[in-house]
Amino acid sequence: MKNILYLLLFSSFILNAQETKDYHKNVATLDRTIETLYEVISGDKGVERNWDLFKHLFHENAKLIPTGKTDDGKITTRYMSPEDYINTSGKWLFENGFHEVELSRKTETFGNITHVFSTYHSFKRKNDRKPFMRGVNSIQLLNDGKRWWIINIYWMQESKENPIPEEYLKNKS
Q: Is residue 10 in a domain?
């Protein structure tokens, strides 16, 4: 009987270990962390996103902060947790399709903090040739010595009044 209990306990441990995802490779380097961010929110219509991986990218209390204009022209921001983003955007991404692709990157690092200005363009389908939107993500990251964490993403879409400056369209650096 004792052996059966040990066997059941060991089997349960093995099954749980197999179900736990190892996302370390997705946050081991700065480049891979940014690539994973773009990959995890991208997908064609009807493709479910890996929201567990999405949440794994972010440090506790991280914020996603879109900027924009209200109908009356007032500039505004909205502060969301990763869970808030999933709840407000997840259904739209699934129902409409969305691929965000990095065009260029400017990276600055001091010690364990990094700021990335990442210019993107967005498509509804992976094979679309013309983007329906472009913008700049300002991404703040922390390296704790073990992995990279996204602390905040603060972004703005390009508009006629605010075209993306040429310096943010140059190759990644």
A: no
Residue range(s) defining the domain that contains residue 100: 23-168
| Helices first, then strands: H and E counts in the chain | 5, 6
Does residue 171 have a pLDDT over 80? no
Residues 34 and 102 sit within 8 Å (Cβ to Cβ): yes
Q: How many CB atoms lie within 10 A of CB 163?
A: 10
- Residue 118 maps to which CATH number? 3.10.450.50
What was the pLDDT predicted at 21?
Answer: 82
Cα separation, 47 vs 127, whole angstroms: 15
The domain tally of the chain equals: 1
* Residue type (1 letter), 52: D
Nearest to 140 by CA among 106, 115, 110: 115
Is the residue at 126 inside a domain? Answer: yes
* Per-residue confidence (pLDDT) for residue 14, from 0 to 100: 44
Q: What is the mean pLDDT of residues 1-30?
A: 62
**Which residues are registered as beta bridge partners of 19?**
none
Give the distance from CA 160 to its chain's centroid. 26
Domain membership of residue 12 (yes or no) is no
pLDDT digits (tens, 9 = 90+) for 139-170: 999 999 999 999 999 999 999 999 999 999 98
